[in-house]
Amino acid sequence: MSNTPTIVLVHGFWGGAAHWSKVIVELTRKGYTSIRAVELPLTSLAEDAGRTRKMVAQQQGPVLLVGHSYGGAVITEAGDLPNVVGLVYIAAFAPDAGESPGGITQQNLPAAAANLEPDSDGYLWVKADKFHESFCQDLTPDEGLVMGVTQKAPLASTFGDTITAPAWKQKSSWYQISSKDRMIAPENQQMMSARLHARKVITLDSSHASLASRPVEVSALIDEAARATANA
Questions:
Q1: Is 85 helix (H, G, I), strand (E, B) or coil?
Q2: d(CA 183, CA 189)
Q3: DSSP state, 215?
Q4: 116-118 and 124-126 beta bridge pairing
Q5: Judging by DSSP bridges, how do beta strands 172-178 and 124-126 pair with one another?
Q6: Topology at the third CATH level for domain 6-230
Q7: H or E segment at 148?
Q8: What local confidence, expressed as pLDDT, does residue 113 receive?
Q9: Which of 20, 37, 90, 182 is 20–30 Å from 64 (CA)?
């Protein structure tokens, strides 16, 4: 497919681009050769969206944006570029105009809300001894240990940053709900996915880290979105 989009993967809070490692391998096995993964500063929505826009602008041809967790808010804000042909949300925030990740979280608090703690510099962490049970309970304890030790904390203020013009109102979208998510309440994911009028919504019996625990199914959804946009 000559119009196959470049897949740009956008991570969320408490992780980096390497959280996509298993998905990258699966997409490569499916024949995708143009894959990028943004490394966000997690300092503000404006700066994170700006970094993503720069990555998108560097790509030749169409781009499919894929966001996990807070990365969904980033692709919602940054997805207005003309070469973005679709948005894929993986257990992700998909705020409307004027909404923030923090505001949506307050609608239905996630199970692991009590396991977050700020530091004296304004960064918000998942307690190291609670990371596995909070973020990725369906991964092995060793995988959870590594994720917890290498977590990338966001500035807490980023939770309150609001969306200006949501790209999902103009672009085709797909959504994966994690039904055992302890970081973004499944009820909030159901609400957001419903109002997207997504072309497809799937539900996985998975933790927040579905991109790591269920990479085959997540990659299949991304592949479906890429094929749909390539043939559009």
A1: strand
A2: 11
A3: H
A4: antiparallel
A5: unpaired
A6: Rossmann fold (3.40.50)
A7: helix 141-149
A8: 97
A9: 182
